[in-house]
Each structure stands twice: as structure tokens, then as C-alpha cells.
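lol ok so funny story. i was supposed to be doing the assay writeup but got distracted and ended up predicting the structure for this chain instead. priorities right. anyway since i did it might as well share w the group, maybe its usefull for someone
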Amino acid sequence: MIKLISSDMDGTLLDSYRQITQVNIDAIRTLQESGVEFMINTGREYQNVIDILGKAGLECDMICSNGSCGYDKEGNLLFEHSIPTETVKQILGVFHESGLVPTPFSQMGRISLLSREELKKYTKEVMIPSMQINHPDFVYTDEEFEDLISQVTYVDGEAGLFDSEHRVLKFISQSTEPDALLRLRAELEKIPGLAVVSTVPTDIEITSSEAQKGIGLMDYAKRKGLVPDEIVAIGDSENDYSMLSIPGIHSVAMANATEAIKNICVYQTRANTKDGIAYIIRCILADRDNFKLT
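and the output, tada:
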């Protein structure tokens, strides 16, 4: 019997406007009312997830920053896997050689090693254009842009980061040149104890090797007394691989998922732009004991 759904956000639960549609909201509420638990399992940081769920009027437990930390719906920390300081220094050394810009995330959210003006320039000239390569309709309104810049914690470069109380949970970086990220990835993968993934060719995400969506999901399931056959996991890209490849789990790929993800999943649902989450929820509620897509 299905007792838990673990859902990715970007490319899965969120539409092309980075929002949860009303159709998906209604489906999740119906699911929760039926006694099936719904949880978020995302690369996004905790505060960002809370903001999105708040706008949708939803509450649920969550695994954030690619498995780096987990929280219950009341905001209580369930677990955390930060990157050791010496490893952070090694990561930053690789970035220096690459010429790419690292963005660390801590328990307090996004951190900038750049000044406010430098971050504005980087966001306009690198981050947004990188996203638009894969999602041509992706835009930030002026208000969203200012919100993004204002919600960052600024530190005085690397020295300021190490002098602070921030525990680094994740690094990300973007580039309009995928080959540059591939070279960066090759060097980062030489550092022991790291998990390095890309959701699209123009980004890269770095966490502790203990911080993966699949590891976090199974730790969470153990707390709840659940086994893989009672869990549905849904995703679309490489950072979902670790949870979708868990033996015995009911793995579901979005129609917009990468081919690698589709190849490892048992099922496929509709695209994120066509309320694929609501569709899979309807199928589960139709028969929780013999779950199948219709």
C-alpha cells in the first residue's frame, strides 16, 4: 500500500513559472486528507521551499539542498549533512582555477561571496542567461530580481565565510558554456567525500556524498517505519537519480524528464506543465494497494 509520495520541485511539482498550480495544490490536499503523506525532496534550500509552500497554502515535511538537510512541517531539523571546512577550501580552490563563480548555501540559505553589485552583474550576465538556454521562457520580473538579490546573505569573501557560523550544505554554479562546467566537474570529482550532479547542462551542484536525495529519503522512511514498496518517488533530472534508483521503490519520471531518468523509472507521468503530479496522485488514490498508471 502506498503511504508516502516524495516529489522533486523544479521540473516536477513546479510549472514553468516556478509555481505550484491550483490543480496540483488541490490534488496534494486530497492526498493528505486520504492519509497518504506528501513530502518535498528538492535541491532548493529550506527557506525557499517554505516560501513556495506558503504561497500555495500547503504544509509538508521536506528534504532540502539535495539531501543536505531535512525538516518536518513545523520547521524542526531532522538531519543535516554539511561539507567539512577543509573540503570547502578544496572546492573553492578548484573554482579559482576554473574561473567560474561558486555560490554556497548554508543552514541560513544562499550566501554570496560577491558584493551586492557584483552579484547583480553575475545574475544578469551569467545566471539568468544560463537558465534561459534550457528554458527559453524563463524570466525574472524586476520585483523578483530585487527579491532574489535582497534575500542573499552577503559575507566578506571567503575569509568572511570561514569567520562566520555558516555551515556549508551545498555549492552551485552556472555557466553559459557547458564544457566549462564539465571540466569543473571532472576536477571536483577528484575530491573525496563529494556528490556532484547537474540538473541541466548549464549548472552544477556540489554536496557531501552523504547528502543525496535517495539517502535522505531512506533515512526519513526509516524514521516513519516505511519500506520502499510503500513509497512513490517522482523526479525529472540527474539530482533525482539517487531516490529514483532505490530498489523496490515506485519510481516515476515526468514526461519532461531526461532520458537517463526515464530509463531507470518504472512509470512515467505527464509533464510538469500539464499537472503531472496531480495525475499520478489520482492514479494512486484510485488503488493504493495495486498502484499503476491508467
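Residues 116-134 form the longest helix (19 residues). The first strand starts at residue 4 and ends at 7.
back to the writeup now i swear
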